[in-house]
From TrEMBL:
Superkingdom of origin organism: Eukaryota
InterPro entries: Beta-glucanase-like, CHR-like, ConA-like_dom_sf, Glycosyl_Hydrlase_16
Keyword Glycosyltransferase among record annotations: yes
Classification of source organism: Eukaryota, Fungi, Dikarya, Ascomycota, Pezizomycotina
Protein name as catalogued: Crh-like protein
One GO CC term, this protein: side of membrane
Length: 455
């Protein structure tokens, strides 16, 4: 990690002037006014304090907003009324089930995640955290070299459970998991998908996650099981098993973008073709999402239960026993608010959380990822423009097998261009956010690490 991070930091110096303070587990946000460490390793308020805010890298454990509890629900896609862009979501998961970036469409009751030429793709994250449960999604993956589709669970302390489809291989889906962002090459696994390829044919992919195990289930058949008992580390005396409240995220991203590290590109099956058949026909690469459902399981029997509205972390060990279910409020008063002062700026009626509310611009309140990359593990960020490329993102190569996800390097540039997010102007967030989350998939960091070491 260290080897990885250092170059990142160097790479990001160029943008440092504008950048927010960077943060990670060993360098928490220092300024109480910007206490929240976003998923991408920068300190801020507002959206920085919502989904992905890392309590271990923030000013204090209660800097991030409390996490909305699990909600069992089946999602279909007649419209996007229950989805908000990041600048419009203040933590009211009742008003918006999803936040997203990129260009989404709905068609025939399905959700189309698009990736126009030179864009960073699309990302859709569910706003309700899941603390054990079964997520199920009907997907038709994207296709083509360099194009990756993902369906994952990711917690704010970087526990992660993944499905990833690499567009160069339409016969299988890759699986992976992480505990607290610790990179481990051994965790990947491939599932061969029977009965038609992953692009042309619908298949149902499930992650069945209990306190004891994770099953990856494709079309009703359990293809891979991870038992918690097999993840015990005798040295640390810890189960290195995903065990903290996590959000469901779906994305489509350009792993094979030329600016990415060769390893990432290789893993993704080659340099992305921005003149692919799908781009010629539809104007974009795309992945199609059908019905998605979330079934919440009971929390662990010994869980601390003081309410029923929000999960919070009670200890920085961030293990299962360090999560409590409380009545804490999850909705912030404005983009200037934080977990330390949830009501700040609440001058409007309570509906503020949903779409339509106006966006006030507050410095460092909507993480864009366009600034530095640093830090945390999930961050392999590269931030943006600047940094770019080079060092940053990377991934790949490594060795082999793996699967990786990773980050997109500088795509920012290219990326942003493609987005028409319609919403705001200054918020480069659209593109950036997408990448950030992608980066949030740790595998890429792992790959990046290897690459750098190799260098
Ligand atoms: C939850 O609410 C309690 C009581 O109001 C408060 O002391 C605590 O700081 C809150 N925790 C978080 C993480 O916001
Ligand atoms: C087990 O934990 C120790 C101490 O935290 C760590 O150094 C080591 O890498 C871990 N082993 C594995 C296989 O993860
Ligand atoms: C959240 O949104 C719902 C539906 O729009 C609304 O009824 C509720 O009052 C909002 N809650 C808060 C705390 O703003
Ligand atoms: C955390 O960030 C600091 C400075 O940004 C960096 O020097 C350090 O190596 C990082 N630590 C880890 C564990 O990533
Ligand atoms: C998964 O499949 C990819 C592509 O076929 C391959 O490169 C990789 O080695 C496989 N990974 C594992 C863990 O088997």
């Amino acid at each position: 990690m260290v080897r990885f991070v250092t170059p990142l930091i160097l790479a990001s110096l160029s943008v440092a002037a504008l950048a927010a303070q960077t943060c990670n587990n060993s360098k928490q946000c220092k300024d109480e006014k910007y206490p929240c460490c976003s998923q991408y390793g920068e300190c801020g308020t507002g959206a920085f304090c919502l989904g992905g805010c890392d309590p271990l890298a923030s000013f204090s454990l209660d800097s991030c907003a409390p996490m909305p509890v699990c909600k069992s629900k089946t999602y279909t896609w007649d419209n996007l009324d229950n989805a908000a862009t990041q600048d419009k979501y203040l933590g009211n998961s009742t008003a918006a089930d999803w936040t997203y970036s990129g260009k989404l469409k709905t068609e025939d009751g399905n959700l189309i995640m698009t990736m126009p030429p030179k864009s960073g793709g699309s990302l859709v994250a569910n706003n309700h955290y899941i603390w054990y449960g079964k997520i199920s999604g009907k997907f038709k993956s994207s296709r083509g070299k360099g194009v990756v589709t993902a369906f994952i669970l990711l917690s704010d302390v970087k526990d992660e459970i993944d499905y990833e489809w690499v567009g160069a291989d339409l016969t299988s889906v890759q699986t992976n998991y992480y505990w607290q962002g610790v990179l481990d090459w051994q965790n990947g696994g491939n599932i061969s998908v029977e009965g038609g390829d992953t692009y042309n044919d619908w298949h149902t992919y499930e992650i069945d996650w209990t306190p004891e195990k994770v099953d990856w289930v494709v079309d009703g058949t359990v293809h891979r099981t991870l038992k918690k008992s097999d993840t015990y580390n005798a040295t640390s005396k810890k189960y290195e098993f995903p065990q903290t409240p996590s959000r469901l995220q779906m994305s489509l991203w350009p792993a094979g973008q030329p600016s990415n590290a060769q390893g990432t590109i290789d893993w993704a099956g080659g340099v992305i073709d921005w003149n692919s058949e799908d781009i010629q026909n539809a104007g974009y690469d795309f992945a199609t999402v059908g019905e998605v459902s979330v079934e919440c399981y009971d929390p662990p029997s010994d869980a601390t239960k003081k309410g029923n509205n929000a999960y919070i972390f009670t200890n920085s060990a961030a293990m299962e026993a360090d999560v409590a279910i409380t009545n804490n409020n999850t909705v912030m008063g404005s983009l200037g608010a934080t977990g330390l002062d949830m009501d700040l700026g609440a001058d409007k009626p309570s509906s503020s959380a949903s779409k339509g509310s106006s966006t006030t611009s507050v410095a460092n309140s909507i993480p864009t990822g366009a600034t530095v990359g640093s830090g945390g593990m999930a961050t392999n960020d590269d931030s943006g423009s600047s940094s770019g490329s080079s060092s940053s993102s990377s991934s790949g190569s490594g060795s082999d097998s793996s699967s990786g996800t990773s980050t997109t390097g500088d795509s920012e540039t290219s990326t942003s261009s493609g987005f028409t997010q319609g919403t705001t102007t200054q918020d480069s967030g659209a593109a950036g956010q997408n990448e950030r989350v992608l980066r949030g998939s740790l595998f890429g960091v792992l790959v990046a690490l290897v690459v750098l070491v190799t260098l």
